[in-house]
Write a structure and sequence with these properties.
The chain is an alpha+beta fold and about 140 residues long. The chain folds into two domains: about 35 residues; about 90 residues, SHC Adaptor Protein. Helix content is about 30%, strand content about 25%. The protein has two helices and six strands, in the order αββαββββ. The chain has a four-stranded antiparallel beta sheet with strand order 3-4-5-6, covered by helices on one side. It has a two-stranded antiparallel sheet with strand order 1-2. It is rod-shaped. The relative contact order is 0.11. About 25% of the residues have low confidence.
């Protein structure tokens, strides 16, 4: 009977030893696997903006929706929204430059300028206002 137990113990030890390389390969595959984005899908970041009436309005910044115009953009490029006092200043400059509207999206260091502020006018048009580091208007462009 003890001989049977010894044989079983040896067989179990061999089975465990044979499984270790497979377990090690499975563990390293998990480390190389892409990790999910910590931001839940469909959730937009919210920023504060200044409207034409002087009231603070919440608006979306950095929408996760893609359009046909974005097909040539690098998917690894992340748009970084303007925040804090810089958001307040950039919004104020853009809205004053256009004579009104609501800030609907912002970006730091986009391909055209240091700050980009997208403003939606009362008639529905969207205008991108490009600003330099000192909040001077560099250019404007209709979407």
């Amino acid at each position: 009977m003890t001989k049977r137990i010894k044989v079983l113990l040896i067989a179990m030890a061999l089975a465990v030893a044979a499984a270790i390389p497979a377990l090690a390969r499975a563990g390293s595959a998990d480390q190389d696997a892409p990790h999910p984005d910590p931001t839940p899908s469909g959730v937009d970041e919210v920023s504060e903006s200044t409207g034409t009436s002087g009231d603070d309005n919440a608006s979306t910044a950095g929408s996760n929706e893609s359009s046909d115009d974005d097909d040539d953009e690098d998917p690894n490029d992340k748009e970084i929204p303007i925040t804090g006092p810089d958001l307040d200043r950039a919004s104020e400059v853009a809205i004053n430059h256009l004579g009104g509207g609501t800030v609907t999206e912002t970006e730091i260091e986009d391909e055209e300028s240091y700050y980009e502020v997208e403003v939606t006018l009362d008639d529905g048009r969207q205008i991108d206002v490009q600003l330099d580091e000192n909040f001077n208007v560099v250019s404007t462009e209709s979407d």
